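Response to reviewer comment R2.3. The reviewers asked that we include at least one raw input/output pair. We reproduce the pair for Tetratricopeptide repeat protein here without editing.
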Amino acid sequence: MDLLQFDAQDLYYEQDDSQEVQDLIKYASERYANGDAELPLLQAFLRAPESLNVLVSLNRFYYYQHRLAEALIISERALALIRPGIDFPEDWRALERSHVTEAPKELLTRVRFYLFTLKSIGFLNMRLENLELSRAIFEKLVALDDKDRIGAQGLLELVVRRQEAAEGIFRLPDVFG
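Raw output as returned:
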C-alpha cells in the first residue's frame, strides 16, 4: 500500500465544530501576532475537547511559540483521539505493518493523520532531547512505511547521529563512502 495513493476523505478540518468554536479559532488566528491567541484557543478546547481542529490549532500555537512540552501533550491527545476510529492498538509500539496495509481504504486519511501525528510526537521528543523515545518512534514509522511517504527516515538518521555525537562517535558523511 502506498500512503500517497488514496482518496482523501474524512479530513479532520472538514469536521463540524460549533459556530462558537469556529469563531474562537478564527479570533485566535487574528490575535496570534500580538500574543493573545492562547486564551481563545483554550476556550475553544474547553468547548470542544475532542475537536481535531482545536487540537491542531493548539499544537501549532504551542509549537510556533517554542512551547514544545505543551505541543507534545496536545499531539499525544490527538493521537489518542484518532486511534479508536482506525482500530489501531492503544500503544503505538504494538503497531504492525498489517495495521496499515489492511486498513480499509475509507480510513486511509485517518491512518495517515495518525502516522503524521506519531511523527510529530517523535519530532517533539527529539527537540525535547528524549532521543531514545524519538528514535523508537521513527524506527516504528520507518518499519511501517517502506516508501518513506511519512518522511520519518531522515528524522531517524538525524536522531541516530545526535545520539552518536553525544556518545563521541563520529562518522564521515555517506558521500565519502
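The chain has one domain: 17-168. The CA atoms of residues 88 and 99 lie 7 Å apart. Further pairs are available on request from the corresponding author.
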